[in-house]
């Protein structure tokens, strides 16, 4: 089997796992691949991007075809923050920005750009965007394209940065 093929398959498998288990870091995988020299970081980045897209599509479809899924997950209220502290104001600012962007998913004009922004920057978190997009009227193909483009750009930039050293 070609060297790049097993590297891509391994990265794709880790990408699927990291898409649904938030504690698994795709960025750390690419960093480890580049630093160790065991894997090509660009191949790992593309494989991770594909795997993350597959995993997020699975989450998207789970919400779309199981309406009670989102209701059960949204029962938890976020912890209150002390607005008198710098940290509290920062957390409040982050939450309000994320909420505004997540509300934009319901609008046809903003759904794909918010998904693309989320998949590239992580604000709002792509995990939440995938769950909410499944409940919205967004199409699966558009969602998948935006996630893959954003993730590929993010991970390939990381890989290029690692390969430069």
TrEMBL record:
<keyword id="KW-0812">Transmembrane</keyword>
<keyword id="KW-1133">Transmembrane helix</keyword>
<feature type="transmembrane region" description="Helical">
    <location>
        <begin position="110"/>
        <end position="134"/>
    </location>
</feature>
<feature type="transmembrane region" description="Helical">
    <location>
        <begin position="140"/>
        <end position="164"/>
    </location>
</feature>
<protein>
    <recommendedName>
        <fullName>Membrane protein YqaA with SNARE-associated domain</fullName>
    </recommendedName>
</protein>
<keyword id="KW-0472">Membrane</keyword>
<feature type="transmembrane region" description="Helical">
    <location>
        <begin position="42"/>
        <end position="63"/>
    </location>
</feature>
């Amino acid at each position: 089997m070609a060297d790049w093929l097993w590297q891509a398959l391994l990265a794709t498998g880790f990408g699927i796992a990291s898409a649904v288990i938030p504690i698994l870091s795709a960025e750390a995988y690419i960093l480890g691949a580049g630093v160790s020299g065991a894997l090509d970081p660009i191949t790992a980045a593309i494989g991770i991007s594909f795997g993350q897209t597959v995993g997020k599509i699975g989450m998207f479809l789970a919400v779309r075809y199981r309406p009670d899924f989102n209701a059960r997950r949204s029962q938890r209220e976020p912890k209150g923050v002390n607005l008198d502290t710098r940290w509290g104001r920062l957390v409040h600012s982050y939450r309000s920005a994320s909420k505004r962007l997540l509300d934009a998913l319901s609008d046809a004009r903003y759904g794909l750009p918010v998904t693309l922004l989320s998949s590239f920057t992580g604000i709002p978190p792509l995990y939440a965007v995938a769950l909410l997009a499944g409940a919205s009227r967004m199409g699966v193909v558009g969602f998948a394209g935006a996630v893959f483009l954003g993730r590929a750009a993010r991970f390939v930039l990381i890989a290029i940065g690692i390969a430069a050293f």
